[in-house]
Task: inverse folding
């Protein structure tokens, strides 16, 4: 008995000492230079994204033209500002991003940019993008973490040379998570054994210089599917290791340049190419940028509260677990999309759908066909037609509209047919269910029919 | 565990080889290469779209000429010829509803003027008014007084017999003058669209043909295919929602027929309009116009999903049969032969459903990666 107690004590003290060593290493100072460069790149990319979005007419398309918006569950109070005010939001966002890039009042700038960027993208679920979610998180972290120690206006009055190691690793973790869960999502049958949806997408790239004809081969889709999964699963780890870092970064650049050319996905590839530089040695900017760009007088550590590490650990744990929530429910997440958003599932589905809604007067039993375009833009309609929660939301819009016009609240049913990854079309929702009466549910929705997979 | 770079490379190579092996096993060795979508776009442009607009311009000129004859020498014969020319020009233009993108859409004023529902009362008012009539005055008119619909009001009137209508042309000559000015205006607009597709500086047909290969409009081939497929879906949607559901009144509760909302109400060319649009959809899908046959979009669809191709061909044939089976003019059928119109509506819905789901899914023109995973 005494021996057993003694062993347990030893193991506990060993455990404590391991934890203590980990904590000590996480609190150890590292050069703040790479996080300074990361901040410059993040601010610059957000600024460029805003300029690009504005120039392409994206603000009007997303906020001015639509008359109805798909609110996130529980966030229906978040609505676009009327008319030209959204341009003001984007102008302020651009200014905040630029301010973050130059490092003038960095945290406040990041906070403003985070709030405005997140607000703009919470206005309409139809506009959800994985990389918007990532940018919101990164801006949020930039508002909380000390990133202005180098390459910033702030550093002239309040410079610091080092940050705790955990600050750097939290940023790395957040970026690496996108790749890792992107790879985990690809470990499924359509991606690995049918090369879908890459077979469909690559076939549409016959114009790719030199490689165009090869991209149309089914064999190419298989090779790229497997390599893509391997890349996503491994690249974050490879970037973390010094010996493989350069090779991994070359892979990152190659992968994203190819996807940028193949899939017309705007800023996302460039964001990842730029921000993965944070995996390099924390001092890398000092080696490649002129020395005068760094304040030699700044020698102190960034002041970070001791509890910051604990909060970071909780955040990291949440980020590691939250993308897995779809596994709590039965059903095919690619079909039901329960837990699909905010889980870093990228490139996994090619869905196309046709959704017809019928509103029936409960008094007379007479029904009418709803013209979706009377409520939604073509883009919103396309997005809605394949996503069950948006289908339910649209049914509510139709019923609310009837009520606002003084009519009794109609029953709204939907006949929705969707193709998933090249399969024959299948009905997505139960056409007999009054979707306008369906409440918000967490997890599995009973009126979503079985996946054709 | 320390992993060397060599081991990492080896691991990736093994994974790649495994993928290649599975691909080789999964795909038949004799699988022909998928159809060249660049050639499909080029054929759609050069064999279907550009010739259709060229024909529309020829027919618009014939209409202009015929209406000028009617203006100068109103008679039963010249009225009949003008009406015939109107129907031919109308059909030639309606085919292009299947590819309403590019100039006809970008030049929205032009397109809108060509084909907007008329305010019949105002056109009739204008035909008897005493305001000056010249090209400048026509340019100031709203879209609902011009284009095919405006001319139709002047050339057709089922509420009176042809003799009475002809008398309106002979009395003072204003109706004929207005019709001639509107026909010239229409011809100019149609020619502008046709020229924009076929000639510099825009040469939109070339821009579509070269999508992803130096096109000034479409940076990627995929964008060109998207434009074509989305236009087909939009055309089917307009047939369902505007040309059939609204006159049937099934977009409202209770469903009250609205015959005044049919297109081409005075000429009773509404069913021909519907057929022309369906023909246009078929021409684009099959890459075929008359004897000219190119590499069809259908092949690209069949390559990815043969059943989608079969379904669309079948549903298109069924839709045309159902539209032809509409009993009587559409304006009366929506009231007294509703079942035949509802059957046509249902059949066209199948076309749209197949285009929006199966065809778009097979071609990757849905929202896909471009929208949910990047900007």
Result:
């Amino acid at each position: 008995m005494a021996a057993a107690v003694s062993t347990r004590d030893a193991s506990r003290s060993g455990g404590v000492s391991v934890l203590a060593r980990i904590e000590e290493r996480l609190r150890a100072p590292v050069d703040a230079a790479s996080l300074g460069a990361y901040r410059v790149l993040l601010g610059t990319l957000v600024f460029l994204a805003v300029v690009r979005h504005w120039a392409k007419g994206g603000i009007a398309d997303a906020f001015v033209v639509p008359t109805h918006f798909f609110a996130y569950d529980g966030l229906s109070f978040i609505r676009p500002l009327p008319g030209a005010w959204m341009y003001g939001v984007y102008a302020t966002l651009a200014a905040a991003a630029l301010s973050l890039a130059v490092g003038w009042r960095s945290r406040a700038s990041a906070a403003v940019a985070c709030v405005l960027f997140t607000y703009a993208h919470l206005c309409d679920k139809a506009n959800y993008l994985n990389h918007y979610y990532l940018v919101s998180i990164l801006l949020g972290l930039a508002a909380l973490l000390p990133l202005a120690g180098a390459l910033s206006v702030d550093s002239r009055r309040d410079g610091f040379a080092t940050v705790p190691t955990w600050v750097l690793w939290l940023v790395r973790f957040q970026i690496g998570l996108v790749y890792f869960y992107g790879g985990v999502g690809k470990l499924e049958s359509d991606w690995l054994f049918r090369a879908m949806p890459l077979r469909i997408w690559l076939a549409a790239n016959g114009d790719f210089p030199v490689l165009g004809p090869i991209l149309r081969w089914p064999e190419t889709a298989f090779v790229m599917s497997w390599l893509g999964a391997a890349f996503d699963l491994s690249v974050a780890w490879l970037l973390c290791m010094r010996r493989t870092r350069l090779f991994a970064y070359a892979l990152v650049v190659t992968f994203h340049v190819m996807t940028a050319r193949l899939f017309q996905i705007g800023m996302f590839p460039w964001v990842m190419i730029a921000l993965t530089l944070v995996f390099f040695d924390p001092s890398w900017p000092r080696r490649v940028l002129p020395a005068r760009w760094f304040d030699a007088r700044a020698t102190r550590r960034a002041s970070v509260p001791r509890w910051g590490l604990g909060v970071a650990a909780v955040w990291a744990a949440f980020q590691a677990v939250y993308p897995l929530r779809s596994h709590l429910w039965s059903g095919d997440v690619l079909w039901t999309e329960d837990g699909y958003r905010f889980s870093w599932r990228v490139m996994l589905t090619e869905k196309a759908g046709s959704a017809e809604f019928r509103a029936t007067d409960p008094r007379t039993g007479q029904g009418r066909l709803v013209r979706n375009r009377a409520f939604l833009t073509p883009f919103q309609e396309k997005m809605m037609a394949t996503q069950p929660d948006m289908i339910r939301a649209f049914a509510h819009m139709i019923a609310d509209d009837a009520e606002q016009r003084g009519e009794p609240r109609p029953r709204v049913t939907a006949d929705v047919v969707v193709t998933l990854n090249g399969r024959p079309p299948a009905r997505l929702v139960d056409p007999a269910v009054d979707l306008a009466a369906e409440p918000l549910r967490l997890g599995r929705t009973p009126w979503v029919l079985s996946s054709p997979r | 565990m320390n992993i060397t770079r060599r081991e990492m490379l080896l691991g990736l190579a093994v994974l790649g080889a495994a993928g290649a092996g599975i691909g080789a096993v999964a795909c038949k060795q004799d699988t022909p290469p998928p159809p060249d979508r660049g050639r499909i776009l080029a054929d759609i442009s050069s064999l279907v779209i550009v010739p259709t607009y060229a024909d529309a311009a020829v027919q618009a000129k014939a209409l202009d000429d015929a209406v000028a004859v009617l203006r100068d020498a109103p008679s039963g014969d010249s009225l009949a010829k003008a009406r015939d020319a109107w129907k031919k020009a109308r059909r030639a233009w309606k085919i292009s509803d299947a590819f309403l993108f590019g100039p006809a859409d970008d030049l929205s004023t032009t397109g809108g003027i060509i084909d907007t529902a008329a305010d019949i009362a105002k056109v009739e008012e204008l035909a008897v008014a005493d305001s000056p009539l010249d090209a400048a005055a026509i340019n100031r008119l709203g879209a609902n007084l011009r284009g095919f619909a405006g001319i139709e009001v002047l050339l057709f009137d089922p509420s009176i017999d042809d003799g009475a209508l002809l008398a309106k042309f002979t009395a003072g000559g204003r109706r004929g003058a207005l019709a001639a000015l509107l026909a010239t205006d229409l011809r100019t607009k149609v020619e502008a669209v046709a020229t924009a597709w076929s000639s510099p500086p825009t040469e939109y047909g070339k821009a579509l043909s070269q999508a992803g290969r130096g096109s000034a409009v479409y940076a990627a081939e995929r964008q060109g295919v998207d434009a074509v497929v989305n236009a087909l879906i939009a055309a089917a949607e307009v047939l369902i929602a505007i040309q059939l559901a609204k006159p049937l009144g099934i977009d409202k509760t209770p469903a009250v027929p609205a015959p005044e909302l049919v297109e081409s109400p005075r000429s009773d060319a509404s069913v021909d309009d519907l057929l022309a649009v369906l023909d246009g959809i078929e021409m684009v899908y099959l890459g075929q116009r008359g004897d000219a046959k190119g590499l069809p979009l259908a092949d690209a669809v069949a390559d990815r999903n043969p059943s989608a191709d079969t379904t669309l061909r079948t549903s298109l044939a069924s839709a045309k049969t159902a539209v032809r089976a509409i009993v009587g003019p559409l304006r009366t059928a929506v009231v007294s032969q509703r079942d035949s119109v509802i059957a046509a509506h249902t059949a066209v819905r199948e076309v749209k459903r197949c285009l929006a789901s199966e065809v778009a899914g097979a071609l990757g023109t849905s929202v896909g990666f471009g929208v949910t995973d990047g900007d």
